[in-house]
Amino acid sequence: MEIKPFRALLPAPENAAEVTCYPHLAYDQASFKKLLQSRPNSLLHIVRAEFELAGPVAYLDPRIYERVRTNFHNALEKNIFQLESTPGYFIHELEILGHKQVGLTGLVKLEEHRNGTIKGHEKTFPEQVLDRQKRIAAFGGHVSPLFLLAKENPNLEHLLATETSVSPCYSFDTMGQVHNRLWRVSQTNKVQEIFSKIPDLYIADGHHRIEAAEGLCNELCELGELSRAESFIPVTIFPEKAAHILAYNRALKVRPGKWNRLEFMKNLQTNFEVLPASNGLATTKGEIRLYLDKQWLNLKSTIPKQGDPLSDLDLSIASEKIIKPLVEDYAPAHIHGMHYVPAINGITELESLVNSGNADFALSFFPVSAREIIAISDRGQTMVPKATWFDPKLCHGLTIYRFQDQDHL
After folding, report:
1. CB neighbours of 167 closer than 8 A, spacing ≥ 6?
2. H/E run at residue 9
């Protein structure tokens, strides 16, 4: 695997805490506007530019991407960023609630994904891929790296430990969520030496964006406007054992006429042992928690194991045996009435969706492991969308990859 350095656009160290952000956090319109007012230099003005538009904003509204372009130009005018004078690699450490993970940031060719040496594990939503493609084009690059995993490699882990033994160039909190530390790599010759012996990498977070980057490449190629810089994408690569993975839970509102509670419970008992549960937290693999009628139940599958890492996932079993029978024209990427709720939001959100009538039932899972993700990816299989939630995530705005700055490629 070839990992290249790049000229990063970084916030000035004194601005890093205000500039960097986590756009995946849930906001309503009022609280978000208040947040933007208190953080005039935050990259949220760029990555969530739609919140600044007046009136109803449709998905893929062209005004969104024009505002992204305008807001980024305005941010550059404020001189809150600084462009690295030479290409380099970085080490990024994330820390939250006592958990630390350290990874290396550089560039990979998009061709590695097309060739199957950068492997994904989730299906994507086509409309989300298109939205991200338009945002990349409007921004002129990537606001953050993709989150990748590497199989255990002592040489990589030694490099990460050595490079982080000195004081970091950056040390700050992003939005009160995660503490970030960043180092510039000094042993640059070691990076390619190590990765030349690593044949495959695995996407943890960023399936939609890597497909979006490929879509932009194809579009620019057809127009005869493709430069070498668009053929690369920034990534931060973490050892697999560093990954902290949470479940991605579900709540479903069944179409009228398809929901019959008694029949639903009867069908469950053909594939599961149904037991009472004190709460909605699945404690081990093989358990699925069901919220129905203001109570939690524990579902234990009675389906024989297939010996296949994808088929044996609790989420796969639930999708096939619980959700699919209730959905007309079942397609994992387009399930009417489905709410996807990351475990970081807590069990109460699932309960609220059901208690309010916005969902008929909710399902809570034990998280998938990094080892399972790698096994599924190595087989060329893909999970249903929204199968994993990696926490902490990489912040936006720390190591920005701007196409126009990469003349060295």
Report:
1. none
2. strand 9-11
